[in-house]
Amino acid sequence: MNGPVLKISHLAIQRVLLVCAVSFAMGFLLAPVVTYGQSPALMDAYEQFQALSAQGHYEEAVPFAEQALRLGEREFGPDHATTASLLNNLGALYRAQGRYAEAEPLVERALAIFENALGPDHPNVATALGNYAALLRGTERSEDAMEMEARAKAIRAKHAEENP
Question: Which of 79, 88, 90, 113 has its Cα between 20 and 30 A from that of 133?
Answer without folding.
Answer: 79
